Every structure is written in structure tokens, then in C-alpha cells.
Amino acid sequence: MKQIFLDVDTQADFLYPTGALVVPGAVSILPRLAALTRYAAEQSVPIISTVDAHLENDPEFAEYPAHCVAGTLGAMKAPETLLPKSARVAIGEAAPDAWVGQLILEKRSVDMFTQPSIAALLERLEPECFVVYGVVTEICVMNAVDGLLRLGKPVAVVSDAVHPLEASKTPDLLHRWRAAGCSIVKAAEITGENGNGSN
Q1: DSSP readout, 29-77?
Q2: What is the residue-level pLDDT of the chain in tens, covering all 199 positions?
Q3: Which structural domain range is residue 50 located in?
Q4: What is the pTM of this model?
Q5: Residue 118 sits in a domain of what CATH number?
Q6: Residue 198: inside a domain, yes or no?
Q7: CB-based contacts of 168: which residues, under 8 Å, 6+ apart?
Q8: Number of domains in the chain
């Protein structure tokens, strides 16, 4: 397995201006998200997608405004990030050993590795590289990348297909990841397409 795409929390409440916890400017990465999804479909690259699936009175809402409540429109993935063939793994379910297309894994924490099925799945996979993108750069994406690096997994972060809440934190974060052996790439380097939009 050469590459696995790890698509972090690309949901309506984070990406769209009307979202309950919108990341300002995150809508600008949608063209790159779409390009990565198209590439995955054309090249049969597996996608693992994480999605918040919060309860109505989730403890996380003491820290962040209510968002991505399971079953709501805000919790839906952006259409640009969906493959035609996908399977969803609810919290408490075991992730399958193998899958075709896209595996959508529910979570209720900013750190996907606190969800046992996600942690177990990522630990046993051995691609040449996990290609990571999504939101938010310094929160859920950071936890995903750091967790993969702790496992000794090869990681590439798509720098123009992630978006921060606080842009000032991004340079230091990218520097730290590079120092840890992570590759920092652009979407066009992965897909071979011309870049669309700006970030």
C-alpha cells in the first residue's frame, strides 16, 4: 500500500461560513480538498476520514461552542471530500481490517488517538506514507500528525490543504514536524494538478 490519505474533520461546521464553529477562511482549501479526493478516486488511494460526532451535551462544549452534533447538517462531510464508495465506523465499533475506498471514523475528541478503534487501525497500517490534510491545523490535524509520528509512521502534511484558527502558530508547527522527519508538501505535488485558489 503506497499511500493512505488521512482526511481530518472536513465537515460543514468547520469549513462553511455558516458553520457552528467555522474556521475563518477554511472554505479556501476546498479546491485542494476536491483535487485530493479526485486523485484518490482515480488512483485507488484509500482515504481514512475522521469526523466529529458529538452528543448534544458533549463535555467538549465546555471548551468550544456546540458543533458537529451527530445527525445534524453541520456534522456532514463536505461533498468535495467524499468518495462514491465509503463505509462509516461509529464510536464503539471496531474498524475493519481492510476496506475499499473511504473509511469514515467517528470521534468525540480533538485527538483521534483517544478513540481505540482509530488508534488500533492506524497502528497496524503500514503504507509508504500517510498524507494528512484537513482542519484545524494546530488542533485536530496536529494531534493526528503527532500521533502518527509517535507510532513511527511516515507522514506528509499537505500545507495548502490544512487551515489554522491562529495562523501565527503554523510556521513553528511546520518547523517542528519537519524536524521530526515529516514531509511538508503542496496538494499539486500529490495530485499533479495545477493549484487552485490560495491559502
Answers
A1: GHHHHHHHHHHHHHHT--EEEEEE-B-TT-GGGGTS-S--BTTSGGGSB
A2: 699 999 999 999 999 999 999 999 999 999 999 999 999 999 999 999 999 999 999 999 999 999 999 999 999 999 999 999 999 999 999 999 889 899 999 999 999 999 999 999 999 999 999 999 999 999 999 999 999 999 999 999 999 999 999 999 999 999 999 999 999 999 999 999 764 443 3
A3: 3-191
A4: 0.94
A5: 3.40.50.850
A6: no
A7: none
A8: 1
